Amino acid sequence: MKQPSSLSAEASEKELYALLHISPEASDEEIRRAYRQWAQVYHPDKYQDHQMKDIATENFQRIREAYEILTDEYKRVTSGLELGPKLNKLEEIKEELEKLRRQKEEEKLSAHTRTTGSLLANISLPQYLEGGGIMRGMAMSSDVQSQLSKRNTVAMGGNLAVTGNSGTAAASALLRHQLSSVSTVEIMATAGLRALIGVQTSRHLSIHSTGTTGIAVSLRDGSVNLSNTWTRQLSETSTGNIQLVLGAESNIAVGWQKKDEKNSASGELKFGSSSFGASAHYTHWFSSKSHGRVAGRVGSTDLEFEIGGGRRISNFSTLRMLYTIGIQGISWRFELLRGGQKLVIPVLLSRELNILIAMGALMTPSSLYFLLKKFVAKPYYLRKEKQKSLENKEKSATQVREAREAAEKAQKLLQNVSNRKRNRQVEAGGLVIIKALYGSSKAFKRVAEIRVANDIASEVLDVTIPLNFLVNDSGQLKLHKGIKKSGIMGFCDPCPGEPKQLFLEYTFNGQEHQALSDDLEEVLIPEEGRRL
After folding, report:
1. Which of 21, 99, 165, 286 is deepest in the core (most CB within 10 A)?
2. Which has more pLDDT, 252 or 82?
3. pLDDT (tens digit, 9 = 90+) per residue, 362-405?
C-alpha cells in the first residue's frame, strides 16, 4: 500500500494505538487493559540491573504517555498530534510550536510583500551575419509590492533598456488606498522618458461590474489624459471590458477574457485617432505540466502571428518556446519563468518573410525542445533527484540508527516472555513465528529467498521477538488494519519515506507457511499462506 508522504495527526494517533497494540476503535476500558499488560513488562521496579532498568524506564514512559494521550482529549492536543510529527517531550512541543510561529510569520511577510522582475536579452542572427554584434539590446525591470496595512498598499518599480549605443530608464511608484469595501483610489507617478503623475479610482458598480476613472498629467509637456474603463463579469469564467481614453492619444478599446481549468483566451479591438489594432490569444492546457498557445496581432503598424507552448519543468519553473512570424521578420522567443521572475530571449532569425526560413524555423524549435528535454533537462533532474535522495538518506541515518537501538532495547525486555510464549506454542503445535522481517518493499522484491538474504539487513528489521510476544493465549496473531507497523513496541522505521512490508515465516499445526503484507494491511494468522 502506498505510504503517506508526511505524518499527519491521524497517523500519529494511530502510532499510539500501535504502541499499545490495540484497535483504533478500542474503548477506554480496552486502552486501560492494554496499558496494564504492557506496564507489567516495562515497569522499572521489576528490574535490578541498572541497564535493564534504564531501558524499562524509557519504554514505560512511552507507554504511559500513549495511554494518557489516548484517554485525555487535552493531552491529545498538547502532545503534538495536531502539529504533525509525534512529539514525546514538552521541550519538543515548545520547539515545534515556535517553529510553526516563525513559519507563519514568514508566510505572512511573503504574502504582504511580492516581488517580480524580468530580464530580456535580444539576439539578432541577421545582424551577426552582417558583421555586427549578436546582441540587439537588453532590458531589465523589477517591481516590489508591499501591503503596508489592511487598507494601504505601495508598489515601486524600475526598468532599464539598452539598444545599440542608446538606452532609457524609468522608475515608478504607486500608493493604493481602499476607501471602502467597494472602492479604491490610486496615486501614481513615473520618472523617465514619459514622466507623469496621475490619480485613478475604482468602484464596484454592482455584483458583476466595476468602473474605473483616471487622470494623468505629463510632466514634460503638461498634456492631460482622461480614462474610463467599465468591466463586467459575463459568466463564471469570462469578463468583458470597454475603455475610453481622451487626450493626446485618444482611443477606445473593447476586450474580452475567458479562463477555465483547461483553456484561456482573450481578444481586444482598439481604435484610435491615428491607429487601429486587434489582438487575440488562446492557450490550452494539455495536462497540469504542458500547454500550447496561439496568438495574433493585426493593425495599422503591426501584423504578427505566434504559435508555441510551454512545459512546467519543476514545481516553480516553466519553460516556454514561441515561434513568431510578422512584418518585422521571423523569430523565436524563449521564456523561463520561475516564481515571479522571468528570463526572455527573443532570437531574430530573418528580417524578411522567406518561406524556407519560416518553415525551417517552425520545425527547429520542436527538435531543439526534444533535444534539450532528452539530453539536458531530464539528466539534470534525474541527477538532482538522486542527489536529493542521497542527502535525505544521510540526514535520516542518525535517526534510523537511534530508532534501531531503541527497538533492540525494547525487544530485550520482551525476549523472556516472548520465548516462554513461543515454547508453549511449540509444545501445543500452535502458532510459532520462525522469522519476521519488517522494512523496505523494494528490498523484499530484490531477493528470491528472504530468510537467507543478508544483503538487505540494512533495509529491514528483525521483529521475530515482538511478534512471538504478541501471539495471544488462543494462539493467534492480529495486527490491526490502517496502523503503521513501525509504531509497534520493538519495531521501528528502518527506511523512512519508503513503502514498507512485513514478511512472516511461521508454523502452525506442524506445517510451514509464509506471508507478506503491506504496512497498513491487517495481519491475522493462522491463515492459509504459501506452503514452503
Report:
1. 21
2. 252
3. 666 555 555 556 655 667 677 777 787 777 767 778 888 888 99
Cell numbers at 205, concatenated? 458598480
Please name which of 183, 216, 218 lies closest in space to residue 198, comparing C-alpha atoms. Answer: 216
* Residue 364 burial (CB count, 10 A): 13
C-alpha span between 153 and 202 (Å, rounded): 15
Q: How many CB atoms lie within 10 A of CB 248?
A: 11
Cell of 18: 500501535
- 64-109 pLDDT, tens per residue? 888 888 876 545 544 444 434 444 445 555 566 677 777 766 666 5
pLDDT band of residue 532 (cuts 50, 70, 90) is very low
Q: Cα separations (Å) of 519 from 48, 196, 250, 516? A: 37, 67, 70, 10
Q: Crossing angle, helix 9-20 and helix 28-42, to 10 degrees? A: 60
Least confident of 63-72, 483-492, 508-517, 520-529: 520-529
CA distance from start to end of the chain: 25
Residue in 462, 464, 473 with CA at minimum distance from that of residue 425:
473
Give 145's strand partners. 114, 155
CATH of domain 1-85: 1.10.287.110
At 138, phi and psi to the nearest 5? -140, 155
- CA-to-CA distance for 345 and 140, rounded, in angstroms? 12
How far is 177 from 149, CA to CA, in rounded Å? 9
Nearest to 305 by CA among 362, 257, 258, 264: 362
- 398-434 pLDDT tens trace: 888 888 999 999 999 999 999 999 999 999 989 999 9
Cell of 439: 522494512
How many Å is the Cα radius of gyration of the chain? 35
Q: Strands (DSSP E) along 249-408, which ranges?
A: 251-259, 263-272, 276-285, 290-299, 303-312, 317-326, 329-338, 341-350
d(CA 124, CA 330): 11
CA-CA distance, 436 to 441, in Å (whole number)? 14
Residue type, 223: S
Q: 109-115 long-range contacts, Cβ below 8 Å, gap at least 24? A: 111/147, 112/146, 112/147, 113/144, 113/145, 113/146, 113/147, 114/144, 114/145, 114/146, 114/340, 115/142, 115/143, 115/144, 115/145, 115/340
Q: What are the boundaries of each domain within the chain?
A: 1-85, 395-531
Characterise 449 by phi-psi region: left (phi > 0), alpha (psi -120 to 50), beta (else): beta
